[in-house]
Structures are given as structure tokens and as C-alpha cells.
Amino acid sequence: ARRGAAPGLAPAMESADGAVRTLPSIGRLSRGPTFGRAHGRFGLSPSGRLLPPAPRSQENADPQRTAFLLRKQWTLYSVTPLYRFSDARLRDYARLLSAFIAAEKQKGLAVEVGVELDIKVSVSSLPDLKGSDQDQAAILVQLSSRSAASSKNSEEKLIWSGWFCCVSGDDLSENVPEDFTCLPLFLANGGESYTSIVGSWFQKTFDCCFRRLAISPLNLSWMAAMWTGCKVDKTASAMELVFSVPCLPQPLNISYAIHPEDAKALWDTVQKTPGEITQEEVDVFMDCLYSHFHRHFKIHLSATKLVKVSTAIASAHCDGIIKFLQSQYLTGVLMLLTELAISQIQ
Amino acid sequence: VTINFREYEDNAVWIRIAWGTPYTKPNQYKTSYVVYHSQTPYVFISVSVLKSNLPLLCQALVVASSYHDIHEMELRSHSLNSLKDIVFKRYSQNFQTYYPRPLQERNVAPENGDLRIIQENRNEKERIQRVNQEVFGDGPQPKLEFAQYKLETMFKSDPKMDVLDEKEPFRCLVKFSSPHLLESLKSLAPAGMADAPLSPLLTCIPQKARNYFKIREKKGFFPGSFVSP
Asked: Where are the coiled-coil regions (chain A) (predicted)?
């Protein structure tokens, strides 16, 4: 069995000011050769390289600043390291991207048919969104439109957002030459055509490559198990698994939603080793759910395709679509997604 | 309220209702429909009836039809004809027959294909076909889009696994959806995704004329098939 290697040592991490913090429950994220890749990048490092889901910067982070990321549907991409990217030049990039978009529109690759829109580009940094100190701070790109008709007092409407981030992506950033910046995870919300224009500009300018990040049923089960175990303050929403059986004469979709307390109670009895989650535990958890279902309906869920997982913390779809629902676990989920993105790149 | 009646063939009376309030005229764009077949104790109400108007509508129907009472069956679908089929028992039901049907009558693919291709598990495949036929009947299934089960049964696991052993029910909500649910369910066992016979919880849908269920633990038996009204 593949074992997660989150060090079970000192369940606290010292920050610079000497204060010792305890790990919130999501610290039990496995760092073993998960997701089918054994790169040896997740070794048990004696320096206690834990997975700080609440990194130092987030201690002082204002959850308001990242609140806009919640409850939106983000499409995931993996991005190879960017060549000669500098976070001191964000204003320049915004200007260049803006010019590029205008040029593309001139070329007739019109994004909005009809209304003449003035697109304003902003590129900024999100310092709160990182895992370790080695991580590059997240970069946010936003496109707003202003109707050209009344430029004076018209409102700016946000029409597209995309952000690059890297949460605990040390394994990638450590192995990459000097001039490269690692921001392997890209999340986009808004029109597909804008995503493609912004993506093209970044690809041209920084010699990187974007690819849609799909999430396999195996990874989805990990997410289901991990997120079910997280403590949530308010009344949590149900833990829902959605399965699809497309190859029948008439396709079938099955939604299996479990009361969050009952799901968590089950997970708590399955998850035995403190500080780590193993593949075996995830398998047992899923098997329990499958067999409970089978006893009632005689249907083998394991023969169907798990396409979506939804919990109080976040929801994830196999096409690579994610929704964050709780700000306290935002970095934890990003850490997982960064891992997936890095797997896809390597 | 504005009410219009229209009679169709097959004795169906369609009642169109536009709702207003003491202060506003009836809204002719958001109407509800009620279909009633005289001589039957059934009435089909479109989902566009607001929950608040429903009790009133039901009362009116009871009075108008000289019945005692009306109560909602847990059966919903987009296809009115299918609902009628189920409720009037017009779909092909499974009859117990004791004479074994000769195998040639099955729609098994002709054997004159490549003789080198041997069907493994042929017996099992045939058993599945036969059981499916017994359970679902021969004809086309009524068209339903959803089935929903609220499960409040106990979680039981393989004792070897040493997991949850609660005294409380394991609460789940299961929803099946498909453009044609019953046909889809019928094809699961032949596709290898389900056992044959399929669970009675699913196959009882047409007979019980319902597709919304609450399942609780039945004392002494498992799986709990006690269906609460």
C-alpha cells in the first residue's frame, strides 16, 4: 500500500517568531507517492517539512481578500514553469496583455459580438496564497469591461478572472533552473475565449504550456475521503458522490449523498493512523460506501465512473472544475491541486 | 381564478387554471394543468402548481369529483402518458409462467458468426436475460426520468473491516436520473454493472406507482424494504 508520509513528529510547526502552532486536521494530507506517481519527491524529510495548510502568511491573512475566490466555478490547468517572469513587472504585463487583447479583437477574433467593449486588464499578486516560503506568491489576472458608450460614469464589470498559484510546490521549484518561476496551477473563471487569449499571451511571452487538468476517479476518491474528515464549524452540507454510466442504451446518473455527520463518523473509524492517510484507508472508505449502496440496489458503483465529489469544503468535477467553499481550507485544497498539476507537468 | 375545461379523446378532461389573488387578475401565463379521467380515482397535476395553492386545488377537486379525500402519490415524471401507463397498469407486467421458453425465442445474436468466438459465461448471460425479462416484462417500460430514495437504514459492514458500528441510521439520499430511467436500469445487469435480479427497490417502481421513496430499517430483515407511505 502506498503510504502517506506526512511526518507524525511534533504536530506543531514553529514559525519565525517562535510561536508553536498546531496542525489543523487537514494536516493529515498524505504526501506519499500518491496519485500513482512515485517520484520520490515526497520523502519524509527530517527537517519536518510538514504541509502547513495555514502557512505563516495566512496567519495574518485577511480572509476577506480571498473571499472572492469562494463559491465560483474554476476550470483547472497545469502550467509549465514560466521563463523570465518577474513579479516586479506586473504593471507592464497588464499593459502588454491589454494591447494583445485589443490586437486580437482587431484581427477579428472578436470575443464579444455586438457590444463594443473596452477591456481593462489588471495583474496583481496574492501574497496570502502560498504554502511554503519557497512558493511563488499567486498571481491574479482580471479582465473588466467598460462599455465604451459612456466612459465617464460607467461601471466596470468583472468579466474574467484567472490566477496562477503554487502551494507547497517545492518539489517542482527546487528542481528548476534559475530563470524559471513555478506557478504550476492555473484557475480560470469566465468565457472560454478570454481564457484562450490570456493563455496564448502567457504562452508566447513566457514560453510555457497550459494544459487542462483532469481529475481521475482515483483522485476524486482521495478528495472525498480527505474532505469528509475535515472539521467544519457550521452545519455542513452533504457529502455527495455523483456517478455516471454513459455507455448504456440510455445513460444513467446516480447521485449518492450522505449526511455529513454520518460520513465523517464512518471516515473517522476508517482513518486509523494519525498524521497520515493511506491509499488503503481511502479504499476501505469507498468500499464501505459502495457496499452499503449495493446492499440496497444491487448495483456495483465501482463499475461506474465517479465524476464529481462535493463536500462542505469544496466540490470537484472530473473535467477539472473546482469550487472552493470554505476559506479556512482554501490552501489545503490548493496544495492538493498543485500536486496534481505538478504530476501532469512531469 | 380562471378555469377552462377541455375534453380529449380517451376520456381525459384537461383543466387549465390561471391563478390570481384578491388583488391581481389571474396570471394567464403561469397556468397549471390538471388532467382527470372520469371513472378513475386518479388526477394528474402539473408541477407548476404553487405549493401554497395546492391544498386549495385538492379540496376543490375532491368536492367536484365527489370523492372523500385526495392524497399525493409519490410519483412524478415528465411524460404524462407514462404516468398514465403506470397508474392504469397499461405497461407490460411480468407474469409468472411455468413453461420454459425455448431458447430460440430469445433475441440472442445469431450463432453463425465466427465460430472461433466463444461466449464465455453464456449460461450466466442467459440467466441474466431471463431474470431481467421476468422482472421487467417484455414490453417497453414507462418513461420516467427520476427515482429518489431517502435511506435511513443501518450501516452494516464486513466485521473484518472493523469500521463504523453505529446504532444510528446511516442517512443517505440517492437519486437516479436518466432520459429513460427504467430502460436504463434494465440494461445494467446485462452490462455487468449490477446483479440480476436487480433490487426490488428499483423494480417495484411501476407496480408501486411511485418513484420517491423513504426506506427505513425493517425489523428482522435486511435490506430494509419497509416503505413509508
From this structure: none
What is the bridge-based pairing of β-strands B31-37 and B12-18?
antiparallel
Nearest to B161 by CA among A277, A261, A289, A288: A288
DSSP A32-73: SS-TT---S-S---TTT----SS-HHHHS--HHHHHTTBTS-
With an 8 Å Cβ cutoff, are A298 and B198 in contact? Answer: yes
Judge contact between A337 and A330, C-beta under 8 A.
no
Instruction: State the CB neighbour count (10 A cutoff) for residue A2.
Output: 15
CA dihedral A258, A260, A266, A272 (to 10 degrees): 140
Q: Please state the three-class secondary structure of A177-194 as a single string.
A: CCCEECCCEEEEEECHHH
* Residue appearing with cell numbers 506557478: A183
Q: How far apart are CA A215 and CA B77, in angstroms?
A: 33
Task: Name the packing angle between helices A90-106 and A192-206 (round to 10°).
Answer: 120
- Buried b / exposed e over B180-218, threshold 16 CB at 10 Å, is bbbbbbbbbbeeebbbbbbbebbbebbebbbbebebbbe
Instruction: Write out chain A residues lying below 8 Å of B190, CB-based.
Output: none
- The Cα of A225 is separated from the nearest Cα of chain B by a number of Å equal to 14
User: Out of B163, B185, B201, whose CB is closest to A266?
Assistant: B163
- Distance, CA of A266 to CA of A286 (rounded, Å): 10
In this predicted structure, what is the pLDDT of residue A236?
77
Contact B16, B3 (CB under 8 A): yes
pTM (2 d.p.): 0.76
pLDDT digits (tens, 9 = 90+) for A8-44: 333 333 333 333 333 333 333 444 333 322 222 222 2
Closest residue, chain A, to B156 (C-alpha): A292
Gap between the Cα atoms of B218 and A135, Å rounded: 56
Is B119's pLDDT higher than 80? no
Cell numbers linked to B170: 446511516
ipTM of the complex: 0.75
Q: Does A100 touch chain B (CB under 8 A)?
A: no
Q: CA–CA separation, A313 vs B114, rounded Å?
A: 55
Amino acid of residue A226: M
From the DSSP assignment, how many helices (H) and strands (E) are in chain B?
6, 8
Distance from the Cα of residue B196 to its chain's centroid? 19
Question: In one letter, which amino acid is A113?
Answer: V
* Partner residue opposite B178 with nearest CB, options A238, A251, A258: A251
The three-class DSSP label of residue B169 is: strand
CA distance B221 to chain A (A): 12
- Chain A positions in Cβ-Cβ contact with residue B175 (cut-off 8 Å): 254-255, 257
Any alpha helices (H) in B66-173, and if so which ranges? Answer: 80-87, 122-136
C-alpha cell at B224: 430494509
Q: How many CB pairs under 8 A join A and B?
A: 122
Q: Are B93 and B137 in contact (CB under 8 A)?
A: yes
Beta strands per DSSP E along A48-153: 74-79, 82-83, 117-126, 138-147
